[in-house]
Structures are given as C-alpha cells and as structure tokens.
From TrEMBL, chain A:
<keyword id="KW-0067">ATP-binding</keyword>
<dbReference type="InterPro" id="IPR003439">
    <property type="entry name" value="ABC_transporter-like_ATP-bd"/>
</dbReference>
<keyword id="KW-0813">Transport</keyword>
<dbReference type="InterPro" id="IPR003593">
    <property type="entry name" value="AAA+_ATPase"/>
</dbReference>
<protein>
    <submittedName>
        <fullName>NitT/TauT family transport system ATP-binding protein</fullName>
    </submittedName>
</protein>
<dbReference type="InterPro" id="IPR050166">
    <property type="entry name" value="ABC_transporter_ATP-bind"/>
</dbReference>
<dbReference type="InterPro" id="IPR027417">
    <property type="entry name" value="P-loop_NTPase"/>
</dbReference>
<dbReference type="InterPro" id="IPR017871">
    <property type="entry name" value="ABC_transporter-like_CS"/>
</dbReference>
<dbReference type="GO" id="GO:0005524">
    <property type="term" value="F:ATP binding"/>
</dbReference>
Automatic annotation (TrEMBL), chain B:
<feature type="transmembrane region" description="Helical">
    <location>
        <begin position="126"/>
        <end position="147"/>
    </location>
</feature>
<keyword id="KW-0472">Membrane</keyword>
<comment type="similarity">
    <text>Belongs to the binding-protein-dependent transport system permease family.</text>
</comment>
<keyword id="KW-0812">Transmembrane</keyword>
<keyword id="KW-1133">Transmembrane helix</keyword>
<dbReference type="Pfam" id="PF00528">
    <property type="entry name" value="BPD_transp_1"/>
</dbReference>
<dbReference type="GO" id="GO:0005886">
    <property type="term" value="C:plasma membrane"/>
</dbReference>
<protein>
    <submittedName>
        <fullName>NitT/TauT family transport system permease protein</fullName>
    </submittedName>
</protein>
<feature type="transmembrane region" description="Helical">
    <location>
        <begin position="88"/>
        <end position="114"/>
    </location>
</feature>
Length: 261, 287
C-alpha cells in the first residue's frame, strides 16, 4: 500500500432534489479526493449538503451529475462489497437485542460464521472500550456508550472506510470530548479512512487531517484545509496557536460562504 | 392494588343504577298484577316485587347472579344446561376464528407492505368487507358452507375470522412500516435483502402494534362467534342461549349469557395483555 492512494474521489458532482417547492440544488460541482488513512471532516451550516455528500458516497442518494468512486468503483458496487461502515446521528440500536446482538446484526446479514461473529464482537467491543457490556441491553447504557456501540457495529465487518454523520451531535460537550479522544485512538489503531460530518468547529479541527468547509444554496465546497497538526493529538492541543489558527480559517471560510445571502 | 378501588367504585355505581332501573322498568307489571288482585302495593312491597319477578323486563343483579351460580357451579359442565358448556362452545369457535383471522390478517399485511399492487388493490376491499353488516352476511356464510358439507364449528369460526382479521391487517401494516428511514438506510448500507430486513427489523418492530391488534381482534372474534350462533338455530353456545332466552322471554337467562360473554372477553383480552407485557418487556419495548 503506497501513501496518498485515493480511496474516495468526487468529480464535478451535482445533485438536485425535486421537491414540491421546486428544485433544491443540494450539491454543485463538488470535487474532492480523500486518500487512504485520511480523517476528513465536512463542516458547514445546515443545508450545505455535507450529509447529502456522505449519503452519495454511501449510495443512499443518487447524484444527478458528475461521478463518485469508492476504492475505484461506483458507490453501489462499494456498498454491495460492504466497503464502508456508516454511523448515523442516532445510535439506532435495536432494543430487543443485547449490545453483542446488535453488533452481530450486520455479521448475521453478511453470513459470517457464528464462531467468527463471536470473536469479532469481542474485538470491536474492546476497540471502543465496551468490553464486558456484551450482554447488556441498550437501555442499560448511557447515550455516549450507545453511540460507541454503534461505532463498534460499523467496525465489525472490517470495512476500510468509516462514514460518520454527526455521530456525536446529540451528546453533551464533556461526553463528546471523551469520544473524540477515543475516536482518534481508534483511528490510529485501525488505520481506517474516515469521512466525518459535523457542525462543530473545534471537533472538526481536533479530529481531522483534512477539513472540508461547505456552504449552502447551492451546496458546495468553499475551502479545503490540510491540517498541519501532528497525528498524535492530546486534548490540550486545542489551546495551541496552530489549532486556533486553523479554527480561525475554518470560521472565515464559513462566514465567506454565508456572505452571499 | 391501588387501581382496584376506582374500578370497584364504578362497578358499585353501575349496580346501584341497575337496581334503580329494575324498579322503574318492572314497576308497571307489578302494579298491574296487584290491580288485578285488587290490592295496592306499599313502596317496599313494590320494590321487593320488582326485584324478584320471574320474567322481568330488567332482572335485578342478584337474580342474574343467582342464575349464573345455578348454571355454572351447580351444574355439571357436560350438561346442556350448564353455562360453562355453552361458553366453551362459543370459546372454541372464537379461538379458532381468532387464530385464522390473525394468520390471514398478518399475511395480508405482509403482502400490502411488500407489494405495491397489493397495497393499491387489497386495502379498499379489506375496508369494504367491514362495512357489510355482519348480521346480514353471517346467515349466507352458514348456508353456503352447509351446502358444501361444512357445519358445526368451522362456519362460526369463519364468521369470527371475518371480523377479527381486519384490526390485524390495519395494525400490522402500520407496525411493519414503523421502522424509520434511518433504520432502513442502515439495513441498506449492510446490503441486507428484503427478507433479512423483514425478519430482523420489520417484524420485531411491529410487535407492539401486533398485540394491540390482537386485543381488538379477539373481542371482534367473540362477537363473530356469537352472531354465528344466532341465525342457525344452533343448539349450543352463548348465542344460542341468547336466542332461546329471547324466544321464551327468559330475560334472566339472556342477561346471564351476556355477563358470561363479557367475562369471557375480559379473560381473553387480559391474557393477551399479559403475554404482551411479558414479551415487550423482554424485547425492551415496554411503554
């Protein structure tokens, strides 16, 4: 595996939703390369198309123009090959299944043998620091722990790409900090490529190697920032001048995007 | 135990109203009888009479109670005069019809959820079927089935099924559609098949709706079984008791059959409620 190998690539991507109030231009002329092992954040106000872009990568929305490839193939083929794990804003755990049972769900669907299922459940629970919670039911866990379980579920089938749609958006700041720290550790251990949608500037700057700033009407990319921060990031890095400088640039980008309405 | 007090209060009030109504409705007959014997009744004599007539317009609660005691505890259950026997006859038709109705309703709901053509074509007929008065169609079903050699339990069960499949269809369609877009998207990201989505997501999600439908369905099923016993001159069952009672003006018998039917419905709905509580609690879906 060479460095800087492109995993996700979007060229001249366009997506227009036809609604009763007329067409909505959700994505306009979006171009982006995501390399292997990148942690890319998408940030922007609501309606900027960041979630739509992620859903296009996941083959949950169909673009009306341009092209996206995942591992060199179309999103549909990538989905069929189970090339990515998708983490939604809500944990979406089934209340009638234990945490272990929830993580086993995609494995059952994919027809993975029972013995291997058990082993994988153990491994991913360990990755998200939930060992010992396998037999618990979702309602017995806090919101943050539930979201970690849903990340474990997305990791369970060993996809190289992790698509995350505001996974910590519904959690309070303290839990969020903790989960951000954990996510970075997990990313370092697993070397996944992560695409992460957020509307928190500190979260985007803290986590990412690349920050994609987007703006609405029509949804488009206004700035792509390559982060100079090292991969190893303690929480305190958020008080350094480098960090604040990137955060400033992101804020400028967001403001510029808003200037035209 | 705290919720038993309001229930008993209401029961007490109803019994009071019932006794009062018995006086009002049966007084005329008591006065007529007294007038023919050239007597006048004091108020307490009048009350005593209205509560103990042999064929009252409205029997008093204790008369119905005595009749219930007489026909359940004091009779062998195999006797044709035992209300337990009649209740059993009605229950077996109700139960069979309920099982068939639940199966039919569930199958139709699955078809409606998975097949757009069925969604467009079947649902109007399902609704239309319930607008036909069951009293009008029940004799037809009995006659037609008799002509092809089916009699006894099955025709009654089919009328029960006719009434009980409806709430199951409506509830299960809603239940099978209850997973939200996110849950369905999630299944899509795992490239799950329609069958996998059905067994692992849609069916478990529908359980709260399923049990609610069953409660409505079992009550409708009992009505169906009783109606099925009426037009056929059936010799056994609560419906037959009601019919025989009305032929011979045996209001006490009618009321005791009605009370028995209500008790049967309460027990069946209660049992389903119990299964519902246990199941949903184990599934982590208890409200």
């Amino acid at each position: 595996m060479q460095e800087n190998q492109s995993v996700i690539s979007a060229r001249n991507l366009d997506l227009t939703f036809q609604t009763n109030d007329g067409p909505i231009h959700a994505l306009k002329d979006v171009n982006l390369e995501i390399n292997k092992g990148d942690f890319v954040s998408f940030i922007g106000p609501s309606g900027c198309g960041k979630t739509t872009f992620l859903r296009v990568m996941a083959d949950l929305e169909q673009p009306t123009g341009g092209e996206v490839t995942i591992n060199g193939v179309s999103p549909e083929e990538a989905r069929r090959a189970r090339a990515y794990g998708y983490v939604f804003q809500a944990a979406g755990l089934y209340p009638w299944r234990t945490i272990g049972g929830n993580i086993r769900l995609p494995l059952e669907i994919m027809g993975i043998p029972k013995a291997e299922q058990a082993e994988r459940v153990k491994r991913v629970l360990d990755l998200v620091e939930l060992s010992g919670f396998e037999k618990k039911f979702p309602w017995q866990l806090s919101g943050g722990m539930q979201q970690r379980a849903s990340i474990a579920r997305a990791l369970s089938f060993d996809a190289d790409i992790l698509l995350m749609d505001e996974p910590f958006g519904a959690l309070d700041e303290i839990v969020r900090d903790h989960l951000n720290e954990q996510l970075l550790k997990l990313w370092a251990r697993t070397e996944k490529t992560i695409a992460f949608v957020t509307h928190s500037i500190p979260e985007a700057v803290y986590l990412s190697t690349k920050i994609v700033v987007m703006s609405p009407r029509p949804g488009r990319i206004t700035d792509v920032i390559e982060s100079p921060l090292p991969r190893e990031r303690p929480l305190e890095i958020r008080e350094t001048p480098e960090f604040l400088e990137i955060a400033h640039r992101v804020r400028e980008g967001l403001r510029a995007g808003h200037g035209d309405d | 135990m705290r919720n038993i007090i309001p229930i008993l209060t209401v029961v007490g009030l109803l019994i009071l109203v019932w006794y009062g109504a018995a006086i009002a409705l049966n007084a005329q007959w008591a006065r007529d009888v007294a007038a023919r014997a050239d007597k006048t009744l004091t108020f307490s004599e009048l009350v005593a009479d209205t509560w103990s007539q042999e064929k009252p317009k409205l029997p008093a609660p204790h008369q119905v109670g005595a009749e219930l005691w007489e026909t359940t505890v004091m009779k062998k259950v195999t006797s044709k005069r035992s209300l337990v026997y009649h209740t059993w006859v009605t229950f077996s038709a109700t139960f069979l019809g309920f099982v068939m109705g639940t199966a039919l309703g569930t199958l139709l709901a699955v078809g409606i959820v998975f097949n757009r053509t069925m969604d467009m074509s079947v649902m109007p007929w399902v609704i239309a079927s319930q607008t036909i008065p069951i009293l009008a169609i029940a004799p037809m079903i009995i006659v037609v089935l008799n002509a092809v050699g089916l009699s006894g339990l099955l025709p009654k069960a089919i009328i029960s099924m006719y009434l009980s499949f409806f709430p199951v269809v409506v509830g299960m369609v809603k239940g099978l559609r209850s997973p939200d877009q996110m849950q369905l998207d999630q299944m899509r990201t795992w490239h799950a098949s329609g069958m996998q989505t059905f067994w692992k997501l849609r069916l478990p999600s529908s359980m709260p709706y399923f049990f609610t439908s069953l409660k409505v369905g079992v009550a409708a099923s009992l009505v169906g079984a009783i109606v099925g016993e009426m037009p056929t001159g059936a010799v056994a069952g609560l419906g037959a008791r009601l019919l025989a009672g009305s032929y011979y003006g045996q209001t006490v018998q009618i009321w005791s059959a009605l009370i028995m039917a209500a008790a049967l419905a309460a027990v069946m709905v209660g049992l389903i409620g119990l299964v519902q509580r246990v199941t949903l609690k184990r599934m982590g879906m208890a409200q």
